[in-house]
Amino acid sequence: MTFDDLNLHEKILKAVKEQGYTQPTPIQAKAIPLVLEGKDVLAGAQTGTGKTAGFSLPMLELMMKKDIKKGRHQVRSLVLTPTRELAAQVGEDIATYSKYLPFTSAVVFGGVGINPQITKIKKGVDILVATPGRLLDLVGQGKLDLSCVEFFVLDEADRMLDMGFIHDIKKVLAILPPYKQNLLFSATFSDEIKKLADKLLNNPTLIEVAKRNQSADNISQVVYPVDKNRKQELLSHLIRKENWQQVLVFTRTKHGANRLVKELIRDDINSAAIHGNKSQTARTKALADFKDKTIAVLVATDIAARGIDIDQLPHVVNYELPNISEDYVHRIGRTGRAGNSGEAISIVCVDELDYLKNIEKLIKKPIKKIHENGFDIDPNIKAQPIQNGRGGGQRGGRGNSQGRNQNRNQKNFGGRGNISSRGQRGGGNSQGTANSSRGANRGR
Ligand code: AMP
Fold first, then answer.
1. Are strands 41-44 and 181-186 parallel, antiparallel or unpaired?
2. H runs (alpha helix) in 267-386
3. What b/e sequence results for 390-427 when a residue is b if at least 16 CB atoms lie within 10 Å of its CB, and e otherwise?
4. pLDDT attached to residue 78
């Protein structure tokens, strides 16, 4: 199938072709015809699958078809996203795809001044991309009229619920007109999501691509076992040795992100952190510097990283494994996008073996272990509990978590036999990394 088969307006096709897209991605091939038919859609797809164009292109096509008085702008399409970065990204994509169309679009989110957004809305906006809090603020202040919304997209609904936006979402739904076309995108379908879908969608068609729990084939995944107090040293070493120019590094905490950036800068590696405690200006600047390769390393927490979309991001590093296994799949999905190959590297200390085991279970395969020369593991170091999902990779670690983890102290990486040495990537997969008792700290 090509884009020409999808019955899209030539001006939309022109913009798409300029992006260098030759073929619709699977989610696009499935979603576009259904949306064009006017159907409500429940879509299982995560970022990186091309879902934004999957809903934006038919949305624009439908907006073109409906006869609206020339020059009159009102919010006809609304896209709700969980994070500012995703909102900005989706807004950018929509602006790109609609560049030859007579529509105006705007992005509104919190953390920045509201007045420029009000000014823009006053001028007239056809397509609005928003995070829930700021949207409700604008409506509450009487600055935004949503009574003409015909097309509504709830993007990354699972993440919205994770972030506690359920009440805001319900308030938004209550404001919107009842008769409109609705799309809901989510990477997972919990009971809560199903309930939300029941409330929002009218006789929806379900489409699903590349389930979240299967990590993409085009991403090579490796684990570097290392002692906790040498994680940063190993990261700096790998960045230099492999000459990585653009690497996204994940930490579990904001504090950990800040500390790592300081240490990398001390090693003369240009880096910046992006997380919720940073001002929007700082986040935008860090992202822009990373995109244009002014900085080589962007250190992010899970939530801040949502919506970061950089074509061909070659390397993602888990400096600390996430305590939620699904977040691992989300993280590594930042690389290997839209058919490109990518590499996901996890720097793992003995404390994190339970997390690693759970991740391998989720992705249904062991991850190759590489032992980097000069970074031998000290077998005398015993696992320390990671409290509340925090602490791995942080020097000194944290306190004990109520003695639930006694048996973890026995753990190790299962000896060198399982590990390919000297940074050669050819070795076979290692299995049975942790002779572990199962344990604690898996929940949020
Ligand atoms: P998304 O899942 O919407 O965040 O899109 C992921 C990435 O894929 C973005 O960088 C898009 O620009 C890119 N993309 C979207 N559709 C296509 C396509 N049909 N062919 C190639 N790249 C695409």
1. parallel
2. 280-291, 302-305, 325-332, 353-363
3. bbbbbeebeeebeeebeebeebbbbeeebbbeebeeeb
4. 98
Helices (H) and strands (E) in the chain, counts: 15, 15
Distance (Å, rounded) from C-alpha 52 to C-alpha 47?
A: 8
Q: Is 348 helix (H, G, I), strand (E, B) or coil?
A: strand
Question: What is the reported pLDDT for 85?
Answer: 86
Spatial distance between the Cα atoms of 343 and 125, rounded to a whole number of angstroms: 40
Return the pLDDT at 433.
32
**Single pTM value for the model:** 0.62
Q: Which residue has the tokens 């609904």?
A: 157
Residue type, 20: G
Ligand 1 pocket check for 335: Cβ under 6 Å: no
CA 410 to chain centre: 35
Q: How far apart are CA 225 and CA 321, in angstroms?
A: 12
- Residue stretches of the chain with pLDDT short of 70: 67-70, 210-217, 304, 306-312, 336-340, 387-444
Strands (E), 301-394: 315-318, 342-348, 368-371
Whether the CA torsion 443, 43, 330, 159 is positive or negative: it is: negative
Q: Contact at 8 Å (CB) between 272 and 299?
A: yes
* DSSP states of 183-208: EEEES---HHHHHHHHHH-SSPEEEE
If you take atom 19 of ligand 1, which residue's CA is the nearest one?
Answer: 24
- Indicate whether residue 48 lines ligand 1 (CB < 6 A): yes
Cβ–ligand 1 contact at 21 (below 6 Å)? yes
What is residue 92's predicted lDDT score, i.e. its pLDDT?
94
Both structure tokens of 215: 């990590």
Ligand 1 neighbour 307 (Cβ under 6 A): no
- Enter the tokens of residue 128: 């609005």
Whose Cα sits closest to atom 11 in ligand 1? 50
Residue 250 confidence (pLDDT): 94
């929806």: which residue's tokens? 204
pLDDT tens digits, one per residue of 109-126: 998 999 999 999 999 999
**Per-residue confidence (pLDDT) for residue 409, from 0 to 100:** 43
Q: What token pair was written down for 161?
A: 């619920």
Atom of ligand 1 nearest to the CA of 21: 20
| Distance in Å, CA 369 to ligand 1 centroid | 31
Ligand 1, residue 307: give the atom nearest the CA. Answer: 4
User: How are the residues of the chain apportioned to helix, strand and coil, as percentages rounded to the nearest 5?
Assistant: 40, 15, 45
Q: Sketch out the chain's domains with CATH numbers.
A: 3-212 (3.40.50.300), 219-424 (3.40.50.300)
Ligand 1 center to 55 CA (angstroms): 12
